[in-house]
Amino acid sequence: MNEEKEVLIVGNGDDICSEKTIKNFENIVAADGGFNNIPEGVKTLCVIGDFDSIKKKDIPKKIKKIKFPKKKDFTDIELAISYSIKNGYKNIFITGISGSRKDHFFTSLMLLKKYERYNIHLLTSKEEIFILKPLTIYEFLDMKDKRVSFFSLTLKSERIISKGLEYEYRNGNLRFDLPIGVSNRIMKDKVLFTFEKGRILCFLEI
User: Where would I find the Thiamin pyrophosphokinase catalytic domain in this sequence (predicted)?
Assistant: First the structure.
């Protein structure tokens, strides 16, 4: 994580990152019932949502509460994203995005695309999910033997170059309708990845 202002949004899903990871964040926002996923004693900036999965009386008085109507055009996660952006957070991490409701997981992927100009990462119990942008050199450090998958979000992502993967890209392409980037493996302690055109969704095992 870099030195820019960052925040962790905790949703109500049961597939969340580790307790250790949550405790590494100084700034935490709960999306509605996501407050129940925050370990006891961890400071929470605010709880935001329509409070359909948690009651306001169950939240300590010292924690800020921002309530929205049940009938609204945005999910609680998106409300928390908007709150984080308005409060100047440059790096936004989100966990608790899904459980039995896989449509909630897909919605979170769509939010990555909607807010792609911001640095947003989804954290599950096993993966970190984020969008890669062209003309940027990405480094994956100390991830040897971890699995990594790449999917083009555009019709084609072009001129991909990698160093340190089991299946290297040497000026290669990925297509939206041909998901051949699944289940690659990191072979070195430092991996470099870049491309010139398109958008790529990355699933990185953690």
Answer: 20-121
Strand 91-95 to strand 6-10: parallel, antiparallel, or no bridges (unpaired)? parallel
CA 45 to chain centre: 19
What would the pLDDT profile of 51-99 be if each residue is shown by its tens digit? 999 998 899 999 999 999 988 889 999 999 999 999 999 999 999 998 6
CA distance 161 to 135: 11
Q: Which CATH superfamily is domain 132-205 in?
A: Thiamin pyrophosphokinase, thiamin-binding domain (2.60.120.320)
Q: Is 10 helix (H, G, I), strand (E, B) or coil?
A: strand
Write the pLDDT tens digit of every residue in 131-140: 999 999 999 9
Q: What is the reported pTM?
A: 0.92
* Under 8 Å between Cβ of 185 and 168: no
CA angle, 66 then 17 then 183, to 5°: 130
Percentages helix, strand, coil for the chain (3-state, rounded to 5) are 20, 35, 45
Question: DSSP letter at 59?
Answer: S
Write the Ramachandran bin of 96: left for phi over 0, alpha for psi from -120 to 50, otherwise beta: left
Instruction: Show me where the domains of the chain are located.
Output: 6-125, 132-205
